Each structure stands twice: as C-alpha cells, then as structure tokens.
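Workshop exercise sheet. Pairs work together: one partner reads the sequence aloud, the other fills in the structure field after running the prediction. Swap roles for the next sheet.
Pair: D.N. / O.F.
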Amino acid sequence: MNRTIFESDHDLFRTSVREFVEREMSPNVHRWEEEGIVDKEVFRKAGRAGMLGMAVSEQYGGGGVDDFRFNAVIVEELMRGDAMGSGLYITLHNDVVHGGIHPGPKPGEDRSSTQDTAELFFDDVRVPLENLLGEEGRGFVHLMDNLSQERLSLTVGSIAHAQTAFDWKRTK
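Structure field:
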C-alpha cells in the first residue's frame, strides 16, 4: 500500500527510530519482561535521539515540532520491533508529559509486564508562579486536552500491531 501521509522528514526520522529500536530496545525486551521494568537509561537515550518531547518548545528542551505524524512513526516502529510494551512510555511522554510527581505502590498483576505502572501522588508539590503551565487548579482539564492525542496514539499502535502480525504471518 502506498501511503502518502508521510513526508521525507518522517521517512528520515523513521530510519533513525527503527535503528534505535533495533539497537537499544529489541535486544532487551525479554530481559525487561523478566525483570518487570524497562531500564530507565533507554528513555535517556531516546531523549538524546530526539524521540521525546517533540512538540515541546525548544526553549524547554523539546523538538519544537508539533506534528503527530512523528509520534505515529515511533509507534509503528516500536510495533515493528516487538517493543511496544517496553516503549509505551516513549509515546506516552510525547502525548502527556508530567513533572514533580512521585509514584505510589505498584499495582498487582493488572499491568503489562514491562510498564512501570503506579498510582501517582502530587503531595505538597509547589510550583513557582513563573513555572506554572496553564491555569492553577485546572490540571485535570489540561490533561484532558491531550487525551484525544493519547487515544490516537493507541489507535495507531493497534493498526501497526495488526500490520506487523500480518507481515509476520505472510513471511512464515
């Protein structure tokens, strides 16, 4: 199928992401699943590779490119490399970014084996006025602003997963 949604910048980015997934993630997925957590260093490396915070302004260390198609490329390549469970937080980081939080106890077995899932608490978090993003007391509303993008990421992932399964079955 000839896809016309992506441009040459997306194709170059896809090559970079594919190489990253093949080098840094795919070889480690089984170990991460056994350990029940992804090594946090992979997220630092993903950041250095330009895969995190792409829509975040450059003045805050992001890429400054508000183009969801880059997120779609990441999702597709994580699926292709059988690393989506391990890489979910890369895409989630691009959809919803949080700071100044601490995790609560890990939940039981109701989670993916490599996702560092926990309830989050914002106890006694003080944000100086100059660092406030959005309006005070409207954090949930601001979070909801990005919910549709997060859902779109999940949809792209599901389609990419189906395509990967189809390609795998076709070659067997």
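Discussion prompt: The helical segments are 8-25, 29-35, 41-48, 68-80, 84-95, 139-145, 147-171. What would you look at next?
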